[in-house]
Amino acid sequence: MIIAIDGPASSGKGTLARLLAAHYGLPHLDTGSLYRAVGRKLLRAGGDLDTVATAEEAARTLSREDLDDPHLRDEATGDAASRVSAIPRVRAALLDYQRAFAAQPGGAVLDGRDTGTVICPEADVKLFVTASAAVRARRRAEELRARGMTADEERIRRDIEERDRRDAARSVAPLKPAPDSHLLDTTNLGIEAAFEAAKAVVEAHCLHRTAVGRPPEKPAGL
């Protein structure tokens, strides 16, 4: 069972992915963390985020230390991730890792901006999670304040809208729902309600497989 969850920044896709993975006993990969790690690595080294060769080298040499960097969730890192993710050679460098993760026995849950369209186009279940820019900005501001950081909600909203435009306009793997994905708008949903809605989509898929006489591939928690 492969569950692919796409969506823009701060839509709630990461939280839902973690909850679904825990519920069904599946490994989870936040694919955006890979791009954040590349961006953060370049920021630490003082490298140019828009230099293709430098960004590609950073992607091909990611280490566990890079993935565990405590600053991966910083706003500057998020912006850097959006910029390097628009570079085709960076995306190619990280593609094999992500597909191998999805292909492990038993399946996996992956979330990111192109999980259902590029990384796992054959995923069993695809969700596209979204929310209004204002709500996403509020969530992000609350997250930062909870970590003891200051947060300008209006600036965050503008940054989110700019990141949305950049992600949707990039030439490779633009942010968009897969044709067979299920849209989940979390603007007016709390996390529990959003989780129940996402879980219902997964369980409906399992019931459908059973109805047409195919093995249900039920995750352990179902």
Which key features would you list for this structure?
alpha/beta; Rossmann fold; 10 helices
In a nutshell, what does this entry contain?
The chain is of the alpha/beta class.
Description:
- There is one protein chain.
- The chain is of the alpha/beta class and about 220 residues long.
- The chain has a single domain (about 1-210), classed as P-loop containing nucleotide triphosphate hydrolases (Rossmann fold, 3-Layer(aba) Sandwich).
- About 55% of the residues lie in helices and about 10% in strands.
- The protein is built from 10 helices and 5 strands.
- It has helices at about 15-25, 30-45, 50-60, 65, 75-85, 90-100, 115-120, 135-145, 155-170, 190-210, and strands spanning about 1-5, 30, 110, 125-130, 180-185.
- Strands 2-3-1-4-5 form a 5-stranded parallel sheet, with helices on both faces.
- The longest helix is centred in the C-terminal third of the chain and has 21 residues, at about 190-210.
- The N and C termini lie close together (about 10 Å).
- Residues about 220 have low confidence and may be disordered.
Structural class by helix and strand composition: alpha/beta
User: CATH homologous superfamily?
Assistant: P-loop containing nucleotide triphosphate hydrolases
**Might you state the CATH topology name?**
Rossmann fold
Q: Assign a percent range to the helix content.
A: 40-55%
Principal-axis shape? globular
Mean pLDDT level: 88
Which ranges are low-confidence, i.e. pLDDT below 50, for 5 or more consecutive residues? 218-222
User: Main beta sheet, described?
Assistant: 5 strands, parallel
> Strand arrangement, largest sheet?
2-3-1-4-5
Provide the number of structural domains. Answer: 1
Write the element-wise H/E pattern from the N-terminal end onward.
Answer: EHEHHHHHEHEHHEH
Rg = 17 Å
* Beta-strand residue fraction: 5-15%
Number of β-strand runs: 5
What is the CATH C-level name? Alpha Beta
